[in-house]
Input
Amino acid sequence: AQSVTQLGSHVSVSEGALVLLRCNYSSSVPPYLFWYVQYPNQGLQLLLKYTSAATLVKGINGFEAEFKKSETSFHLTKPSAHMSDAAEYFCAVRNDYKLSFGAGTTVTVRA
Amino acid sequence: NAGVTQTPKFRVLKTGQSMTLLCAQDMNHEYMYWYRQDPGMGLRLIHYSVGEGTTAKGEVPDGYNVSRLKKQNFLLGLESAAPSQTSVYFCASSLPTSGQETQYFGPGTRLLVL
Output
């Protein structure tokens, strides 16, 4: 089964700074990859997804992710962090019609 | 259009008690899922359903049962709750469109087993 690994369980950034969240996948076939965000006391919301159409994927709220096959990575970035970006972020890979999630990365934004 | 709803939002059980969590979706989705979320472990799939009347085991099915009698509802049952089942439970639904389907999540149910 395909899996993903998120590097770093906590990331702290200053408001206005770059946000970089790391996700690596293990897959023997081209994967379908997803980033979800979970705001406090809420369910998960899709940020963006990679489905092989383009390696650079743009999502909601200014986030984007780049699929790099050579590095088996799908890192999530946002050029300028906002206080409202404080949340937990999950990378996921599709297995059949199921998703396998990474352990999550909690983002804290400092004023 | 409410999306995915879950009831109850919060529940406290004693060890050995039983309960049922209800998930409902109004998007006419074929697939439905139950996950549990524990700190540092992401979301783990408990059971899922690919259509009315069908269910299948996920990654951590022990101690849980499910039923999908109606397309819009997916029930998760705990027959004899244990403290290890203290968790946040999320339901999700999706359409099966060749791997690109997005899973839509409910707001979650917080369960505490004493």
Notes: Chain A has a mean pLDDT of 92.
